[in-house]
């Protein structure tokens, strides 16, 4: 560890360890089979015990170490004492060894805002749990059904992430993404989960950066929140392939690991806690995330939470995708 790491590096180092703790909580709740599902605004907006416990763990752990940092979590939870076993005090030693970009060295706690999505991809998480439960409960499964249910569950679990984004001056300046079930498909004995992080000016870590094939436009978009406007916009990109997956964090992973060329979501369904961490990670590798007009989002403490004008993210060629957004889509969305 360097002698006196800058505040923001200590915050990122803590967020890394806290995200890993949250990922372990998400796995534990799934394994228990007791998800405690609550519908917040409908069947496509769910909250589970994992969402609640992971958010308690993240927010309580970070606020104890950084009491003046503003922390905004997705879940509206009652004020209550957080169990001691949910608190994570660790910090990533590797991150503490990194040199802080000059422009962030003097930042103070009260200047920083942390945006938390404790479980991005809750719908996929609950569906995966259902698949696994059906497999376990079936006394004499039909030939092939057990394999099919397992395959579906594993694919759905890949959609799940824990997101912790850090903002300064309205900009996303650092992001941590934990994939709790990474390596799940390798079976018993595999080390589950991975944690990626990035900071513009410093780089991104925890994954191998790849670009989608240059001769193909592969668009990733929503799996469960589509409508005519969303699909009109996707079709206007003239994609060679469309990849429908859950979770904003997962869609950015598709971009940075070369499985997609653009993330296109012409809908107001995404929130600031969905995009802050992914945007920082994407910016750290030279990518871009904007609304459908090409305008950046702001992450100040007092902004509205909804990304009303949609989300368009790319690793390269952002201007091309912005130029393809139909006027009818822009009119339907309005400005943010």
Automatic annotation (TrEMBL):
InterPro entries: CysQ/Inositol_MonoPase, Inositol_monoP_metal-BS, Inositol_monophosphatase-like, Inositol_monophosphatase_CS. GO terms for biological process: phosphatidylinositol phosphate biosynthetic process. Pfam families: Inositol_P. Its cofactor is Mg(2+). It is an enzyme of class 3 (hydrolase). Keywords: Acetylation, Hydrolase, Lithium, Magnesium, Metal-binding, Phosphoprotein. GO terms for molecular function: 3'(2'),5'-bisphosphate nucleotidase activity; inositol-1,4-bisphosphate 1-phosphatase activity; metal ion binding. Mg(2+) binds at residues 74, 117, 119-120, 274. Its EC number is 3.1.3.57, 3.1.3.7. It catalyses: 1D-myo-inositol 1,3,4-trisphosphate + H2O = 1D-myo-inositol 3,4-bisphosphate + phosphate; adenosine 3',5'-bisphosphate + H2O = AMP + phosphate; 1D-myo-inositol 1,4-bisphosphate + H2O = 1D-myo-inositol 4-phosphate + phosphate; adenosine 2',5'-bisphosphate + H2O = AMP + phosphate. Belongs to the inositol monophosphatase superfamily. This is 3'(2'),5'-bisphosphate nucleotidase 1. It comes from Austrofundulus limnaeus. The lineage of its organism: Eukaryota, Metazoa, Chordata, Craniata, Vertebrata.
